[in-house]
User: Fold this.
Amino acid sequence: MWYRILLNRLILAAVTLLGVAVVVFVLVRVVPGDPIAMMIAPGASEADIQDLRVRYGLDLPIVQQFTVWIKGILAGDFGKSFSLRQGVVGLVVGRVPATLELAGLALAIAMGLGVGIAVVATLARGRWLETLIDNVNGLVLAVPDFIWALVFVLVLGVLWPVLPISGRVDPRLDLDLASNFYLAEAFFTGQFKLVGHLLTHMIMPAVALALPLAAIIARVMKGALQEAMLQDYVVLARIKGFSRLRIVLQEAMRNAVVPVLSLTGVQFTFLVGGTVIVERIFSYPGIGNMAIDAVINRDLPLIQGLVLAFAIMFILINLAVDLITIVLNPRLRHG
Amino acid sequence: MRRPLLDIEGLSARTADGQAVLLDVSLLMGPGEVHGLVGQSGAGKTSIAKAVLGILPRAITLNEGSIRFDGTELIGAPAATLDKLLGTDIALIPQDPMTALNPSRRIGAQLTDSLRLKAGLSKSAAMERARKLLEEVHLTDTRRILRAYPHELSGGMRQRVLIASAFALNPRLIIADEPTSALDVTVQKQILRLIRRLQREHETAVLFVTHDLGVVAQICDDVTVLFSGAVVEQTTVHHLFRHPRHVYTRALIASNPRYDQPGASLRPISDEVIADTLQSLDAKGAS
Assistant:
């Protein structure tokens, strides 16, 4: 059962990735902008430009370029960045942990906030507090993540400067870390002062990314909880004389969480997409920020590598959501 | 009669748009008695049960009357009083065993939570007690059932689990809301017998909501016949079948299918009887 789902997903993932590879490969070559022009000083001779074109294989027909690229990937070589003159794999792998930690933190904040608000709204059913929550929620839902990011920078970074507004760590800090998962490693090696320091840098971008998702989770979760509260088994629990909070958490939550979870999976991919702009605003050294540089520089191999990295993250997120759904729903486990 | 266990007096309820749901319903139950609430759908029998349990839908408001349990007024009682009584002294056997168990929690967890929370038993003691309860309702392989999820059990088994759960804390009053109507006929008989036996052993009073007079004859001591939210007749079961006083009761009894007369056609309650009954209720309301 488990391995069958996994195998299915792996095949599907391979097909998806191939599709993404084709689309991104064609797209970056169709959009205007010449990568060679970005590399070379103005006024270079036509012969020099042609020389570079040949060197990077850009003179070949597009189909042939593609097969060269794919052959490289199958051998583990994603090419070399035009602008940074390093292997794409090393560049992307070095940056992915920063984005994963930011997105993970944002997801945790979004789920905590969203579920918490939904529970409070359910308990406050029919009172003014529920109306207030609904209205604030609608407001938050309407504001995109990068607006929050700009507001935070303005308020907490400039007007009342309490939080750092750029980067992942203070560059003067001497880090004693082996991996690029700074937050996780600092936490598990007990360097809690560093954890705190990292969090001051991550909290604004993370909350900016989290708020729209939190509002969506709160809205859907509240609906699911209120529907679950009408189920016979919840009414029976009320007749057993349990407290409202216990009933919401113990009886309603687990059955309400399943629809919320599948939605969160889809929405989380939007959150990861949102890191591109939010990382830029906070000069956060993740792959989103790198992607913008890569596009500006027309760095074709790097753009391709980054898009594939995003695609792989999306696929893994959806796989994880499906597996968690099965764990949470005993009726699916035996099917 | 000894001090009544459940004393409903002059209970009236209506919907938000002013339609009467219950009209001046009074009902008295002593400890250990089984009282049947009979009537067609919409007669108000389930509304009475829900009013006692405090779970009437928002759209229905109680505007008059009182419900006293062992002397304590339940209408408008503080939540703490209700939470203490519910589950411990008053329990429910629900109508539909397919939906009354939480699909994502194991039977053991659902059966032990009130034992742990209300009776303060430890986890292992509660599990042991739950196992004994399952034996009491004639379930075998109790250890497997405690670990099972509801979807792994049949309807009859689930209803037995729910009955075990209702009797778990030895309540003084159990409200049985059509507990057999969602089950097939062969299982119905067993479940009725089971409720009757446990009720006698534990000396529990049962308010038995049903539309089935056959069930009333089998299990109840007293009976209240309801029509359109009002009491039509209230008497002992013995009396009801021997000397039904009200025309509606007679029609209701006559409409019961007779298995001892194969081939006899069913006799629906005629419009005439319904009109007469409504008229008599109006007359009562006017007096």
Summary: Chain B touches chain A through 31 residues (CB under 8 Å). The two ends of chain B are 28 Å apart (CA to CA).
